């Protein structure tokens, strides 16, 4: 993942992957999207549609449901998706290492590695951490296109009961629910 600017993964290369996705498939989703005034169709790229369609096992019906739910959750979970800036994540990145790894699992799945760099629990904010993880995942997938799957490796070294005490149920519920929807979109 580049650190100075983000380039979307080229659609031409995406269509050459062995995913079985064609421009005609994406055209069908784009046509449906035009009939959905509650969705931000002018902000949803063809790459977004490819990612969704791929991860819904090339099912048009499931892709429509997942797109609708995905953008609904992004609207509801404003603490993660509203006013996202680099400044928002600076403190988190001083506390945690959150890095996409260049290597892949045997099946080609992408790997995100996390590790405490500052184990002081007073510097740990689960809401901001979730926001940062989601920003990194969005950018990473935008740059790399489809993956066979996604694995998050969490190194709990340095984590204490004081960290656990800072976890709140609402953030955990929202994150897990959003990840479930995203995994429907981001993995086979």
UniProtKB/TrEMBL annotation:
Entries under InterPro entries matching the protein: CRAL-TRIO_dom_sf (IPR036865)
Coiled-coil ranges from the UniProt annotation: none
Xref: PANTHER family: ALPHA-TOCOPHEROL TRANSFER PROTEIN-RELATED, CRAL-TRIO DOMAIN-CONTAINING PROTEIN
Name the UniProt record assigns to this protein: CRAL-TRIO domain-containing protein
Source organism: Iphiclides podalirius
Organism ancestry: Eukaryota, Metazoa, Ecdysozoa, Arthropoda, Hexapoda
